Hints:
- By secondary structure, the chain is mainly beta.
- The chain has strands at about 10-20, 25-35, 40-45, 50-55, 60, 65-70, 80, 95-105, 110-120.
- The protein has a single domain, classed as Bacteriophage SPP1 head-tail adaptor protein (Thrombin, subunit H, Beta Barrel), CATH 2.40.10.270.
- The strands form two sheets. It has a six-stranded antiparallel β-barrel with strand order 1-3-6-9-8-7. Strands 4-5 form a two-stranded antiparallel ribbon.
- A hairpin with a 6-residue loop joins strand 8 (about 95-105) and strand 9 (about 110-120).
Amino acid sequence: MSFDSLMKDRMTTRRRSETGTDAYGQPTYEYQNWLIDYPCLLQANRGTEEDIVEIHGEKVISTHRLYIRICDIHEADQLVVTGWEGGPDYGALTRSFRILSIAQAAGQHHHLQAKLKAIEPKEV
């Protein structure tokens, strides 16, 4: 089975870009789609010790892992993943995530593994 055949999900990355300035001269930002409909594999974590990521001295628990081919993705990006079949779907098969860390998984420029934290939908 090839790596590409495991990529059952699709992701869109959203990158923050400067859109202008506000009334006080401060830059304003907006997230815009960057990589669109990119193949990936999303898996829910089991809550082990290796799922803890330290960011600026604060420990954050990673809720999911993402596997993708090498691509232009940054920790400052947001992800929207569709087609995910593992875990609660909150009434939809689309979830948003914050990227906690990105690492080369195979060590030979084969693919990336990202630790993610789900952005929970707001209650209405």
